[in-house]
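Practice problem: predict the structure.
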Amino acid sequence: PACSLALHALGADIRCSDWRETLAAVWWGSRPVIFADPPYVDPVKRGSGVLGLFGATERQPGFRAYTRGGFPFSEQVALCRALSEAADHGADVSATNAESPDLRRLYEDHGFEVQTFDMLRPINSDGDGRGAVSEIILRKGASWG
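Answer:
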């Protein structure tokens, strides 16, 4: 409750809805801050010999049960375009995802700054899946420089 009250006092609007509905509800009278954390694409394992084939195939999200209809790569592209447009209209936008050559190229092509970082995953049903994984943070907007 205290966290909810503090966020409400700051004017935060936190909702659980389709990303299109959420972005349509953004109030443009101020400088909005938008954070997106979509279902992650399956990461390409380092040294696997698999190359990113940008736009060539529909890649499934790493968390397949996240949404009923899935979140194919075409949705990643649509989200990227919408976030880029929001930043172009004054929003400060940041997003996260799994490290992926396809996503890196997509967001860089839309003017986002892309930074890679290692995220510890100590919990996984598959013991071999625990440890550090590469993720990316994507930023675009006046506050991000």
